TrEMBL record:
Lineage of the species this protein comes from: Eukaryota, Metazoa, Chordata, Craniata, Vertebrata
Organism: Cynoglossus semilaevis (Tongue sole)
Keyword Mitochondrion: yes
Alphabetical keyword list: Membrane, Mitochondrion, Mitochondrion inner membrane, Transmembrane, Transmembrane helix
Region (Disordered): 99-118
Family named by the database record: Belongs to the COX20 family.
BP GO annotations: mitochondrial respiratory chain complex IV assembly
PANTHER family, alphabetized: CYTOCHROME C OXIDASE ASSEMBLY PROTEIN COX20, MITOCHONDRIAL (PTHR31586:SF1), CYTOCHROME C OXIDASE PROTEIN 20 (PTHR31586)
Annotated Pfam families: Cox20
Name assigned to this protein: Cytochrome c oxidase assembly protein COX20, mitochondrial
Record-linked InterPro entries: Cox20
Amino acid sequence: MAAEDEQKKEKSFKLLGILDIQKTPCARESILHGAGGCVAAGLFHFLATSRVRRSLDVGCAGFLLTTLGSWLYCRINNAKIRVQQRALQEGLKNKILYEGTGMDPSRTPDAGKASGAP
């Protein structure tokens, strides 16, 4: 019974046999957005022109453009988040390292003096 559960967990959906949807970041959302873009572009073109073959071509182009656009947008946002996380981790590491020393950036040199003393 446990072996069957592990096999089900290990199975993943591969698109065209090369792209593992569950392990690739942003892939699932991009494919779903592309499918919606495909239907919308093809349907609107068909309603406007009543040309079936051209509408299918427009739908395929809509799928490609929407999928690529969504994937690029998601990957760029993920990269920005990773950069912010790295900077935050570095800042926390420096705070822990320098806390309580003379190089502590949160300490000011005038903190020990009274406000009225020269």
